[in-house]
Design a protein that fits this description.
It contains 31 helices and 15 strands. It is an alpha+beta fold. The chain has an eight-stranded antiparallel beta sheet. This is Bifunctional uridylyltransferase/uridylyl-removing enzyme. One of its GO terms (molecular function) is nucleotidyltransferase activity.
């Protein structure tokens, strides 16, 4: 079957909305909501009658000094067929309160209703709420049914006042209770048999959000959260009706009946709808709890709550506002934050009060902005402010096919942040940005995996696999292809048929859309098509049989000339995929088998021609006639020609770092000139770390001063480093420095793989210079946030290093410079 992208929803059934089949679903859900409302009204009338019928001798109206309150689901008018009736009888010391209580409670029990009840004075209820979190949460949402309204008002005012006065302690306690519940119940969006009430992202979390809003630390849940809550409430209602029991766990055998009760097409559509709702609630809750944490921390520190982060509107102008999207925003009564430091974390992005927001000068017409800001947040280990995400979704340009290099690099940098990328990716996904960037993502979004080995939906598994792959970027020569391959390896699960074959077609089209070169697109296609090749072969075939290794090598023939590179990518992808699947999908035996099969296949592929030393084009080499030194700056390209000498590379890179330029690529060669000395040609591609590019005249002047030995680059860089406060950011794999033997007969080849940072090339070059080495040629590339640098070095006599001790010393010296 041919796969055709870009088809409309009417052409492919799989693209139907996860919320169901239009009018049928709306009708079914409206009926459930109407049934709950009718039941609430009926119960209120009945309970009012129970209290009104009671006549106590010598009292005109027992309702005076007595009130009946609903708490819990009936207070919210959300009582489902299996839900408990929670009631509180409040009184002012009424002498006949015990008799009144019996005459209210017993008819309820006789009717077969499950009842949770209590009898309190205002003082008693207030004391219980102060000591018991469950009681406090119930009274915060209490609704009067009958009786003395003044008594009800007195109680609610007292409980609210206590809740707000002690918000720092109570909210910290509430956060701890939620974390414990989440650990016990798991994450609703990714469970095949979830508890729709208690799991993370379930109904209980929305009730907690409402309690937090009552403290004035955050706003009440917004429209999207309320809609998600309504869907889960309908699921719970349907579950109670289908089973006839008070159960909140959606077990497998109830999926189809509940789906049909809601007018949904099938069980998978039900699970996708539940996952969508749960992730909406979880995302909003994450933002809310960050606000709570800042509030609690400020109370512990100064006793005065800090202002909350700015919303999209307050980034542009002062004044109170409420965040859009997830529904959490500025707490009522709080002004705009004053004196909170805004620290740059990337081009167009700044850190503000623990979140990443847009810089004031950010160019919303830049198609790479969305991914670059997301990458900056992930690399810094910070969340994206929800209002900033909403602003990006509403106003920012997105890359068109083929993506510009900056957008593709930003995607790779985002994925390369590992676990920190997951929350940022979720923020983009909640705003609808992911499916606009990667249209095929819609097919796997919230798609359940009915497999006990899988912990996540398909889309979350792909993001988790990319996060696992980020820890393996030092193992491969092309970390960008590993990360994107991990993100796309199961993309075919949104199509009928073999997901590996279908996914290869999708990956080929997406690779081209992202702007990868044709050869890289073929590698991505091969990675997706054969992502199960190594683990399946290693565990199901005899690896001692020569035919087993031959089967693997035949699969690699799809990428002639890049077989070994693809093999190492497949090996790393196998590890990332298994670890993202679940703990039972990867173990020591499987790891040994895959590693051994990879080793034997690599041996079978040995004997190829090593890559040639990098060579520059004729235009660049033409500068070599300037024996005294030449500098040419054209946009992001900086070319230097000067007599070769130790330290030339790192000093030039240092000057670029002084001007806050990040080296994305560098090519250097030494070319014979008319004089007795060789001329080195350095060709850099450098972009601003953030903000606008430096003045080309100032940059050229400093480069010429460096060439004339009138600029102490090391001292200037060290002085700048001492004056900067560097945020630690995410934890990254340690750098790796290797000597590539047999790659060149005229030079020693040093390969460095490390996480990119300002001045990295300067540090590496300085270390090589301190070892007395000349850089004869270099090929420097930054792929996302990962640097893959290769240096062809010789000693002072122009010869490669051969002594093992000298080689080990060079490796140690470069590693020390990177730490």
């Amino acid at each position: 079957m041919a796969l055709v992208h870009g088809t409309s929803g009417g052409e492919i059934e799989e693209t139907r909305s996860a919320t169901g089949t239009g009018g049928t679903t709306d009708t079914a859900r409206a009926a459930l909501a109407a049934a709950r409302a009718a039941r609430a009204d009926e119960l209120d009338r009945w309970l009012t009658g129970l209290l009104a019928r009671e006549r106590v001798p010598h009292r005109d109206a027992p309702a005076r000094g007595v009130a009946l309150l609903a708490v819990g689901s009936h207070a919210r008018r959300e009582l489902t067929p299996g839900g408990d009736l929670d009631l509180v009888l409040v009184h002012d010391g009424h002498p006949e309160i015990a008799d009144i209580a019996d005459r209210v409670w017993y008819p309820i029990w006789d009717a077969g209703l499950r009842l949770d009840h209590s009898v309190r004075t205002v003082t008693e209820a207030r004391a219980v709420a102060r000591a018991d979190m469950k009681a406090a949460l119930g009274l915060l949402s209490a609704r009067p049914i009958a009786g003395d309204r003044a008594l009800v008002g007195e109680l609610r005012a007292a409980v609210l006042a206590d809740w707000r006065a002690d918000a720092g302690r109570r909210l910290a306690e509430l956060a701890g209770m939620c974390r414990e519940r989440w650990r016990s119940q798991g994450e609703l969006a990714f469970l095949l048999e979830p508890d729709v009430k208690e799991a993370h992202g379930g109904l209980r979390d929305v009730h907690v959000m409402q309690a937090v809003a009552a403290s004035w630390v955050a706003s009440a849940p917004g429209e999207r959260v309320r809609a998600a809550h309504g869907l889960l409430l309908d699921v719970r209602h349907a579950l109670h009706e289908v089973t006839g029991r008070a159960t909140d766990r959606l077990v497998l055998q109830e999926h189809e009946p509940v789906a049909h009760a809601l007018g949904l097409l099938d069980a998978d559509v039900l699970l996708r709808a539940v996952a969508e709702a749960a992730r909406t609630i979880t995302y909003a809750g994450d933002d809310l709890w960050r606000r709570v944490e800042r509030f609690c921390a400020s109370r512990r520190g100064t006793g005065t709550p800090r202002s909350l982060p700015p919303t999209a509107e307050t980034e542009a102008r002062p004044g109170p506002a409420m965040s859009a999207g997830a529904g959490t925003g500025r707490a009522p009564g709080r002004g705009v934050a004053r004196g909170v430091e805004r620290k740059p974390v990337g081009d167009g992005a700044v850190e503000h009060d623990g979140e990443v927001v847009l810089a004031r000068g950010a160019d919303l017409d830049d198609p790479a902005l969305v991914l670059r800001v997301a990458a900056a947040a992930a690399q810094a280990g910070l969340p994206l402010a929800p209002a900033t995400v909403d602003r990006l979704a509403e106003r920012a340009a997105l890359p068109s096919a083929p993506w510009p290099d900056a957008a593709r690099d930003a995607l790779v940098a985002l994925l390369g942040a590992g676990g920190a990328a997951i929350g940022v990716w979720e923020a983009l996904d909640q705003a609808g940005l992911i499916v606009r960037l990667i249209p095929d993502w819609e097919r796997v979004r919230n798609r359940p995996q009915r497999n006990p080995f899988h912990r996540f939906t398909v889309d979350r598994h792909l993001v988790e696999a990319a996060a696992e792959a980020a820890a393996l970027t030092r193992e491969v020569a092309r970390p960008d292809l590993l990360l994107v391959g991990a993100l796309l390896h199961d993309i075919g699960k949104g199509w009928p048929g073999d997901h590996s074959a279908g996914g290869a077609v999708v990956a080929r089209d997406l690779g081209a859309r992202m702007g990868f070169a044709d050869g890289d697109v073929r590698v991505l296609e091969t990675l997706v098509r054969h992502h199960l090749l190594l683990p399946d072969t290693a565990t199901r075939r005899d690896i001692d049989d020569p035919a087993t290794v031959q089967a693997v090598t035949r699969a690699l023939e799809a990428v002639p000339g890049r077989e070994r590179e693809t093999l190492e990518l497949l090996s790393a992808l196998a590890v990332a995929d298994a670890k993202a699947t679940g703990p039972s999908a990867w173990g020591s035996w499987k790891a040994r088998q895959v590693a051994e099969l990879s080793r034997r296949t690599a041996a079978a592929l040995s004997g190829g021609t090593p890559p040639p030393a990098p060579v520059l084009g004729p235009e660049t080499l033409a500068l070599a006639r300037h024996d005294g030194g030449a500098v040419r700056i054209a946009g992001s390209r900086v070319t230097i020609a000067a007599p070769d000498r130790p330290g030339l590379l790192w000093r030039a890179a240092g000057v670029l770092a002084l001007h806050r330029l990040v080296v994305r690529s560098a090519r250097t060669v030494s070319s014979p000139s008319a004089s007795s000395r060789d001329t080195a040609v350095l060709d850099f591609t450098a972009v601003p770390e953030y903000g606008t590019p430096p003045d080309p005249a100032a940059l050229e002047a400093d480069l010429r001063r460096m060439l004339a030995d009138r600029l102490d680059v090391a001292e200037r860089l060290e002085r700048r480093a001492r004056s900067m406060r560097v945020r630690p950011g995410i934890t990254v794999p340690p750098p790796r420095v290797g000597i590539v033997h047999d790659a060149s007969s005229t030079a020693t080849v040093v390969e460095v793989r490390a996480h990119d940072r300002p001045g990295l090339l300067w540090r590496i070059g300085q270390a090589l210079g301190e070892c007395g080495l000349f850089v004869r040629a270099a090929q420097v590339d930054t792929l996302g946030a990962e640097a893959v640098d290769v240096f062809y070095v010789v000693d002072s006599q122009g010869r490669p290093l051969t002594d093992p001790d000298a080689l080990a010393s060079v490796r140690r010296h470069v590693l020390a410079a990177l730490r």
